[in-house]
Write a structure and sequence with these properties.
Elements: H1 16-24, H2 28-50, H3 53-70, H4 80-98, H5 121-139, H6 143-153, H7 159-166, H8 170-193
Helix pairs in contact: 1-2, 2-3, 2-4, 3-4, 4-7, 5-8, 6-8, 7-8
Amino acid sequence: MKLLKRAPEITPETPDEALVRRAQAGESAAFRALFERHVVAVRRFLRDLLRNTDAADDATQESFARAHAQLVKLTDYDRFKPWMLGIARNVAYESRRVRQHDVLEEDDDATPAAVIPSPDPEAMLLDAELEKHFTEALGHLSENRRAALLMRLDHGLAYEEIAAAFGWSIPTVKNEIHRARLKLRVHLLPHVTGERP
C-alpha cells in the first residue's frame, strides 16, 4: 500500500520559492500565504505611486488577481516580490491612464517610508514639511523612475530584481535610479539648506 505524502505545513519561514511552486500546483493556501506576506508592501508601493489610498487599495486587489491568474508564467520562483511589484507597477500605470481626467489628490495618510516622525513637536513640524516637499519632488519624476526608486528605497530590492521587474538591463536600472536621486536632490536641496543647488 502506497502512502500519500503530505505537503509540509506553511509557516512564516516557508520561502517564497516553495510557496510559488505549491501555488502553481494549485494549493490555494500557498497563494494566500504569498498574498499575506506581500500585501502591505504592494499596497504601500501603489500608494506611493498613485498618491491616493482608495486607488491604491483597488490597484492592490487588481494586482493580486492578475498575479494569481499569471502565476504559471513565473519561472524564477525565488523572484516573486520583484515580479509582483512589476505587476503592481503596470496596474498603477493603467489606473493613472484611466483616471487621467481626474485630479489625484494627495492623501494625508500617504507617508513615504523615508520620512520618520520625531517625538519633538518642532522636529515633527520640520519632518512634515520635508515629507510634503519629498512627495512633491517624487511627483516630478517620471513614473518609471519613481517606481524604480521606490523599489530600491522602500522595498530594498537589488538592482537585478528591479531589472527583472522592468525588463531593463542592470546599467539602465542604475542610471534611472541615479537620475531620480539627482532630480530629487535638485527639488529638495533648497528646502533642506535654503540654498539653490
